[in-house]
Design brief:
The complex is a heterodimer of chains A (298) and B (289). Helix content of chain A is 71%, strand content 1%. A two-stranded antiparallel sheet of chain A has the order 1-2. Chain B is mainly α. Chain B has 2 domains: 48 residues, no CATH class; 210 residues, MetI-like fold (Orthogonal Bundle), CATH 1.10.3720. In chain B, 72% of the residues lie in helices and 0% in strands. Chain B has 15 helices and no strands. The longest helix of chain B has 34 residues. Classes of the chains: A mainly alpha (298), B mainly alpha (289). At the A-B interface, α1, α3, α4, α5 and α6 of A face α1, α2, α4, α5 and α6 of B.
């Protein structure tokens, strides 16, 4: 604001700025930064809320490293990511690519795909849990039975349970990804496609050489955003497996559920749980950085 | 006064350019439509189950032979559900108002003021985006028990009163407000808060709407923190209450589905009414945030 040469006005503006920021700074320091630091500190302590905190060095991390359940959970968390992100992005892109070319009832079809995004994960977990029940209750098995197929154990099977829990998470997120992909597609100048048409380039080449490279910023955003979502999956798992959260035999347990159980599942092992949250933080950080690196470079 | 919007968000809301109808186009449309039906089928079955009597609950027909509102009567007559519904509305509304006010105030300050320390404050707030909520729930819980916030509305609400996402979103949008407008107001003798409140804020109304949608929906569906911080049935939010209700009803699937429908219908109806508006908001928040 070079218009204001008068230092008192300038100073008054600075005072306004800090007045506006005062309460938010208190908020961010006490509700974000201090708890973050506390979580790191707590990860080197032993504490069950009753006795005083006790320093234990790296004990919590050593315990975690030697815990077979942790490695199972670690693996599950990445399976959610490795299946969830590509499957949802491929479906979302295909739908967005075609929906972008459709005019008749465009808004209605878009709404059909978007509606699940407006739902609560808890409610949908129970809906899908019902679908997965065995005959004569569950919708899916009833459909299979009426078509003459044999039943499938969804939530009771150690191999099927994880994909079964993941499905509603993918389903609910598709609408958002489709909308963002369509925004990305619309942002590509029409002249590029016209030039390709004049040059007689085939449809697939246009997709590969024009659309996908120009969609890179959209893709980077969606990959990072949805990966973080799948790595933090909790609501669906917890609600679909309430009898034995994360079961059967820890087959569906993600890291956030392990953290929840360690901290609030009865024994209040706060230090150990804090160490698990530090691991979650590092996973999210590393995965985001790797994805940004790979996707930006290409 | 002109309202500033992003053109791309508008282009998504507008229908695409016309194409000549042909067979390929028709097949494309039919497949897309079929996919859309599959997408809403779970919601349709949830609603269908909520108006069925138990005897035909597990039939595959969507439209019941004998529709009934008994399930709704029972769920909505359950005083706990009314309470959870009220709790969720209250909490989501208050948190949304707080975010609209503080996120835009901070975003505005970081965007339109030049002062020493501005960049550090901006980076500090932005860096909190990298910290997952799950890492903070333990310290928040400890803090809440120390200050007696466990099992209170404030306890449920305090972690979300401001968000870095919202601050960043609003800052991006205030970039589109010309400084000349603010100068003119300054010359007219408005103080800095009046300039923010009366001049700048009305210009970013679409961004405020986008932020409101995200914050409200996020708090309406929030689960893990309300689950941790509430103990008594009266303080549950709708998702936490629904979970306890569903566990208790587990064999009565028509009741579970009715509960799920009650938790889902408000946002679905709001979406169907304000569809264009909400999709534009989601695109704006997604692209700028």
């Amino acid at each position: 604001m070079s218009v204001f040469r008068d230092p008192t006005i300038e100073q008054r503006r600075i005072r306004w700025a800090w007045t506006f920021l005062a309460l938010p700074i208190v908020f961010y320091v006490t509700i974000r930064f201090w708890p973050t630091a506390d979580a790191f500190v707590l990860s080197f302590q032993k504490w069950n809320l009753l006795k005083p905190r006790e320093w234990v060095g790296f004990d919590n991390y050593v315990t975690l490293w030697n815990d077979p359940v942790f490695w199972k959970v670690f693996r599950n968390t990445f399976v959610y990511l490795i299946i969830g992100t590509p499957v949802s992005l491929v479906i979302a892109f295909i739908v967005a690519w075609h929906l972008d070319k459709v005019r008749f009832l465009h808004g209605t079809i878009r709404a059909l795909y978007f509606l699940p995004f407006m739902t609560s994960a808890v409610a949908m977990a129970w809906v899908w849990r019902w679908f997965y029940q065995p005959v004569p209750i569950g919708l899916f098995n009833n459909m299979l039975a009426s078509l003459g197929f044999s039943q499938v154990a969804f939530l009771n099977s150690t191999s099927n349970a994880l994909p079964a829990v993941l499905a509603p998470a993918i389903w609910a997120g598709l609408g958002f990804q489709i909308i963002i992909f369509m925004a990305g597609l619309r942002a590509i100048p029409v002249s590029y496609y016209e030039a390709a048409k004049i040059d007689g380039v085939s449809g697939l080449t246009v997709l590969w050489e024009i659309t996908l490279p120009l969609l890179k910023p959209t893709m980077v955003f969606l990959v990072v955003f949805s990966s973080i979502g799948f790595l933090r999956i909790f609501d669906q798992v917890f609600n679909m497996t309430t009898n034995d959260p994360g079961g059967p035999l820890n087959a569906t347990k993600p890291l956030v559920l392990l953290i929840y159980q360690t901290a609030f599942g009865g024994s209040f092992e706060m230090g150990y749980a804090a160490a698990q949250t530090v691991v979650l933080f590092l996973i999210l950080l590393i995965v985001s950085l790797i994805q940004l690196r790979i996707l930006r470079d290409r | 006064m002109a309202v500033i919007e992003t053109p791309i968000a508008d282009r998504v809301v507008a229908a695409p350019p016309p194409r000549r109808a042909n067979w390929g186009q028709m097949i494309r449309w039919l497949l897309l439509f079929a996919g859309g039906i599959v997408m809403v089928a779970p919601l349709a079955y949830m609603l269908s189950a909520s108006i069925k009597y138990p005897y035909e609950l597990f039939d595959l027909n969507l439209i019941p032979k004998e529709p009934t509102f008994d399930n709704y009567r029972e769920v909505l007559g359950d005083s706990r559900f009314a309470r959870w519904f009220g709790n969720s509305i209250l909490i989501a509304t208050l948190v949304t108002i707080s975010n609209l006010f503080f996120d835009s105030l901070v975003g505005y300050t970081l965007c339109k003021f030049r002062f020493p320390g501005r960049y550090i404050v901006f980076i500090a707030i932005l860096s909190t985006l990298m910290i997952p909520t799950e890492m903070l729930v333990i310290p928040w819980y400890v803090m809440s028990s120390k200050f007696g916030w466990i099992d209170s509305y404030w306890g449920i609400m305090f972690p979300g009163m401001m968000t870095a996402f919202g601050t960043f979103l609003m800052k991006q949008f205030f970039e589109t407000v010309p400084d000349d407008f603010l100068e003119a107001a300054r010359i007219d003798g408005l103080n800095e808060f009046q300039i923010f409140w009366q001049v700048a804020l009305p210009l970013v109304r679409p961004a405020l709407a986008a932020l409101a949608i995200f914050v409200f929906l996020g708090n309406w569906t929030a689960f893990i923190w309300p689950l941790i911080v509430t103990n008594s049935v009266d303080m549950y939010t709708l998702p936490v209450g629904l979970k306890s209700f569903a566990v208790e009803q587990s064999v009565d699937w028509e009741m579970v589905m009715t509960g799920a429908a009650v938790a889902t219908l408000p946002t679905l109806i709001v979406f169907l009414i304000f569809q264009r508006f909400i999709i534009r908001g989601v695109v704006m928040a997604g692209l700028k945030g």
